């Protein structure tokens, strides 16, 4: 039923549900250790290996999963299924007139995105080997949104670029505070500057650093050749 809400209201509902779930996990010790959190083992570990080798192996696992996930979303984006999703994004009514059930497609995309987010969370948890409810505050969601908006919300490469830029931005503010002796917490400085950067992007380049790629299909190629000949 929540998927029948508008985009803005759906975002509010999902944020609220996530915060309720976080509070439940914090209150119930049997789920994940409550406020004390829970320690987790490495996903890859073997006897006789040094801690450095194990860390490198787990980082390799993270990048391998990232590569597979990126290839998967690229294939989905450029498939007929991906073109239907784009059509629904651009004009839901027009897509429905062509026989596409927007609620079914929205539910499928919602589950797909949730699965990829869950994979990322699992990899993060096994890398740091510890989780607690305070690691999943709403600011985590906002940071991911900033990455998407900054890099390009309709470009998979742009999302990767946005993630790299936000991470470099955060590390840069921490280094700048140490060298410039600024009387402000580096995290507060980071979010202040990111807020200004997002406002600049929204006003002057709403498509993000990398704009949406044109869909390349056989039909588009034939139409382009016909137009050039005309």
TrEMBL record:
Bilayer topology annotation: Multi-pass membrane protein
InterPro entries linked to this entry: ABC_transp_permease, LivM-like
Protein name: Branched-chain amino acid transport system permease protein
Localization (cell): Cell membrane
Predominant localisation class: membrane
Source species, domain of life: Bacteria
Keywords: Cell membrane, Membrane, Transmembrane, Transmembrane helix
Molecular functions per Gene Ontology: branched-chain amino acid transmembrane transporter activity
A GO CC term attached to the entry: plasma membrane
Lineage, highest ranks first: Bacteria, Bacillati, Actinomycetota, Actinomycetota incertae sedis, Candidatus Hakubellales
Residues annotated as transmembrane: 53-76, 109-130, 142-166, 187-204
């Amino acid at each position: 039923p929540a998927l029948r809400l508008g985009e803005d209201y759906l975002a509010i509902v999902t944020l609220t549900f996530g915060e309720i779930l976080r509070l439940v996990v914090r209150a119930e010790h049997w789920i994940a250790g409550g406020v004390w959190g829970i320690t987790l083992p490495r996903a890859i570990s073997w006897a006789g290996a040094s801690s450095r080798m194990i860390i490198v192996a787990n980082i390799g696992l993270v990048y391998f999963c990232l590569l597979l996930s990126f290839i998967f979303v690229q294939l989905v984006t450029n498939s007929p299924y991906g073109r239907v999703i784009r059509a629904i994004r651009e004009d839901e009514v027009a897509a429905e007139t062509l026989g596409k059930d927007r609620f079914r497609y929205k539910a499928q995309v919602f589950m797909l995105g949730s699965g990829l987010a869950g994979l990322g969370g699992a990899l993060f948890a096994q890398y740091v080997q510890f989780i607690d409810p305070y690691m999943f505050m709403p600011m985590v969601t906002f940071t991911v949104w900033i990455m998407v908006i900054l890099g390009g919300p309709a470009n998979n490469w742009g999302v990767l670029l946005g993630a790299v830029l936000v991470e470099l931005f955060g590390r840069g503010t921490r280094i700048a505070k140490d060298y410039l002796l600024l009387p402000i917490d580096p995290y507060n400085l980071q979010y202040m500057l990111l807020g200004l950067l997002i406002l600049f992007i929204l006003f002057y380049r709403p498509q993000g650093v990398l704009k949406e790629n044109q869909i390349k299909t056989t039909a588009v190629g034939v139409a382009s050749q016909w137009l050039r000949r005309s």
